[in-house]
């Protein structure tokens, strides 16, 4: 018996030793997208009259993000019901919830919404097409989307065609187009397919609420001014822009005993604010607010205001009249002066003082600017009312330390408050701490244009306005060492600012070009570069 047990033990050990070691796996990873087995009705069916569509797959699939991914062209008033969503299934069922148009080709582009259930492998851009007529329309139009101002275009841009025979501009605000597509995610190219021969107007929207209607206040638009004829071999570039908001202001709120906050929308460049005294309009002082996140102006209340104040806001084709009751609040804002931009100034930067209240006058005889060795430095001053800045212009020396002393009464604000004794120290940088950038623009055929140097945050740090061909060589001195990009826009109306478009007026935005080359500016280095325009 013992001999038998011993032999059995040896056999067991040998069996275990011969067994292959390893872990149980589920087989090779699935890398193949789902395959359609059949559809009912079949894809590209003509004379379609049904209400339901069923699409069968070779394996379990999952439908996700269908509301964002599914593009139906022409768009339907009532969205179809698509089931199942989120759960595993070997089929998709589509129920149409409205009557179809006669002799029309419909396409359902599912984008990236259909995926393999286990591995999430998408069945990319699956398209189901049918026609209620005797043939399927097969014409196309394609192009790409750019942003008119930014270097990067939006994703999920809706591109639309409107029938030219029945077109007017109000349709873009109120009605759905006859054909649509969407660029979806991380794609700027578009292609509208299954179009009927004819003439159309081409429009694109960053359609935030997915209703295929333009909301001018919140959405970007792009358009082709002339109608297009399909079939066509042309491709189209559409430049998305946000329309400049029309000026609008909101009822002022009392912030302190001598200050109101005035909220606004749009461009306040030409705004003027008044009050009435003896039926005569008297200007009110105002500036931008530093402490509010939204667009807000701070309007200063004159000393002689009593129980209420009449605030009149005027701009181009805009006028609004407010009456604001005054009451005793916290202390009125008092005059405070600080050094703007800190104690270290770059070589080309001018020194400025920031004030908390509007400045009535400056007495330069009570201001003394000296170098480290106490040598006096002559200067002039300039007041920027909107920014509430006092800027000093003087001959700057590199690596120099300066002191500015303000005697009492050097600055007086609108409330007859004068400063006490003030002293500020600041330093100018060394020219060797900065770099220089020389740019030569080749093939410039349109003038004027503005060339701007952008830092890594997209802020303009330097610019040059070019009005003729002899000015296409530009030199930017004392640039902070960093990496920069250059952009250029053609200033059609010669106002030296970039202007957006307007859909109603059929104005395109001014053309903006971003040069792809990034420039590495180093301390005490010169960069010389040629930039070529197409």
TrEMBL record:
Name by which UniProt lists this protein: Ig-like domain-containing protein
Keywords from the named record: Signal
Classification via PROSITE patterns: PROKAR_LIPOPROTEIN
Tagged with keyword Signal: yes
Organism: Flavobacterium terrigena
All copies of domain SbsA Ig-like, residue ranges: 30-132
Top-level taxon of the source organism: Bacteria
Annotated signal peptide: 1-19
